[in-house]
Specification:
single chain, mainly alpha, 2 helices
Length: about 160
């Protein structure tokens, strides 16, 4: 098989392979975006719990009953624990968002690669079509010439330039 015939097959195989990679990257990106959204929801839940706890502490502080030192220590320790959870959740959410953004860039890069191969395939198909049209036209022209009436070439005597001498 000639190299001209094999090239489109190679391009088609490359396009199929890159398209499958693109689809895998899209699935991965979707999963990472969903994970980032879940982690953002976890951050918001923790922030809500901290706000609720702070409201409870304010109510207790404004109440008429005095707070015991041990209660204040436990409230402070619980607040520190929640702040640590919040910090950890924010870091996890930022990491998930970065992974989702990296996956988006990968999808864009793969999409560009697939587009390049598809454009090349289209150009080659167009060139092959033009080449086929030229070949067909050549065959038609040759066929027309072979069917044209054949005239005998009459030999025309060459002018004699020696008459005057």
């Amino acid at each position: 098989m000639s190299s001209e015939k094999r090239r489109p097959d190679r391009l088609e195989a490359l396009e199929r392979w890159q398209s499958s990679e693109l689809e895998e990257a899209r699935v991965n990106m979707s999963q990472l975006h969903a994970a980032a959204a879940d982690k953002q929801a976890a951050v918001e839940r923790i922030e809500g719990a901290i706000e609720d706890f702070h409201s409870l502490v304010r109510q207790q502080a404004l109440g008429s009953a005095p707070l015991h030192a041990e209660t204040l220590l436990r409230m402070s320790a619980f607040n520190n624990y929640q702040q640590q959870q919040l910090q950890s959740a924010r870091e996890s959410q930022q990491q998930a968002a970065q992974q989702a953004d990296d996956a988006r860039r990968t999808v864009l890069r793969l999409f560009e690669q697939v587009s390049v191969v598809q454009r090349l395939m289209d150009r080659r198909r167009e060139m092959a079509g033009k080449q086929e049209q030229r070949l067909l036209q050549k065959q038609l022209d040759e066929g027309a010439l072979s069917r044209a009436p054949q005239t005998q070439n009459e030999t025309i005597p060459a002018e004699d330039t020696t008459h005057g001498r």
